[in-house]
Amino acid sequence: MSYSLSDPITTRAGMLKGLRIGDLTAFRGIPYAASPTGERRFAPPEPVAPWLGIRHAVEAGPNAPQRLRTVPDLDAAPLIGHGWSKGDDYLTLDIWQPAGGADMRPVMVFIHGGGFVVGSKNAAVQDGATFARDGIVYVAINYRMGVDGFLPIPGVPTNLGLRDMIAALGWVRDEIAAFGGDPANVTVFGESAGAMAIADLIASPLARGLFRRAIVQSGHGGMTRAIPVAQRLVHTLAKLLGITPDRDGFARILPSEPLLDAVDAVSLPTARIDLRGPDGREPVFGISRFIPVHGDDVLPLEPLEALRQGAGTEVELLIGSNREEMNLYLVPSGVRDKLSNRLGKLLAWFVLRKSLPHAWAALKAYGMGRGKPAGQALTDAMSDLVFRCPARRFAEEHRGKTHVYEFEWRSPRFDGGLGAAHAMELPFVFDSLATCTGVEGLCGTAPPQELATRIHAIWVQFARDGTLPWAPFDRNTRIVHSLEADRAAFEPVMPAAAFLP
């Protein structure tokens, strides 16, 4: 593989050179907004100060402050990266440019997941070279997370992480033509928290016109909180840190280990904090305390209500889920199997009731008490309640062109127990199976390359012209395409629908 500096490209802030890697060119660490430090820490993203000369965009650069959480016996680094790379200028993006110098190519912008508290554009599974290889101008972004990005602190603009994403998409609109991309043919795609954010952007008036298509992988618009509810977390964190629950108080605590300690403390399942809404539901089921809020200028309405009123009609949508999403959380941790003893039913109910009214009825609807172990009933119920069913609800309410997929390939890891878990589709979408293959890899030792080739090609074709090889979804036809089986069919309404808005 040959390496050399590219020819310079001119942007509004200055000139850039990337790194030629074989036939492709990678530009890394391009700032799309000024560093979120000092007075800008709790402010909306601001334009980058112009630079003189040529900037070498060849290093990935820093990312948002974070602390990784390990998954027992599973190498998660390819999915979420290696943790916090410290530095001020982390509102940056990477671009992979196809060979050949052609203009007006399709653009794909990836937003990473990680529960709005971990992750970065640099995770190995998100190898943009595979999309550039197939003629796509690929972009991946960093954004503010945790306290700085998704905590509605009084006196601070809300949803700063979403505002960062909007700023990055604005940068793509204004600058991507210089890299050979078509600003009128942008597909934004993401997984998990990144997919949740994209669903929110579809519903946001501030993001209208910034992308033509969206791919929402294991996400939906159901994970937002009302600002007053989310501010309970502000008060809890302030008490832990010994500060006032406002901008002045949090400005005293710089992004640092003590702040990350507090984030860890409130993120524990045993943390005593009630983030249920007026309907008694906790929309994230305890997976993350830090999520977007509704009731501001970014999300004036809850996303589903915004869709009902016509938001996002102009966006072509591909949305889907993995068949056994919650296996990632409950199988490696041993929770699923621990709930198979005599107390299993009671413990499963206790876990679910913290987030869902009528938890006992929901568990019974998923087979508890009818021969299915309580841990398996909880896992199956939460896969549908947290991910699969809300994705279908988003598809039902979206008034634009909508397609739904299901990823069902089962990893052999954990004696076959990991299955079609959360994040399993990522190495197939990116055609980057090597990053997740191995004894501790997500996909085990021999994942099927043919399936990765086919799924990756579906994503590429959708970004090119919006076409997909199966019929659209609506609340009557309910056509869902199973990716491994390569078959589209009617999908009945899930039992979880009776327990969700």
UniProtKB/TrEMBL annotation:
Keywords: Hydrolase. The keyword Hydrolase applies. It is an enzyme of class 3 (hydrolase). Residues 9-467 form the Carboxylesterase type B domain. Pfam families: COesterase (PF00135). Its EC number is 3.1.1.-. SUPFAM superfamilies: alpha/beta-Hydrolases. Belongs to the type-B carboxylesterase/lipase family. Belongs to the 'GDXG' lipolytic enzyme family. This is Carboxylic ester hydrolase.
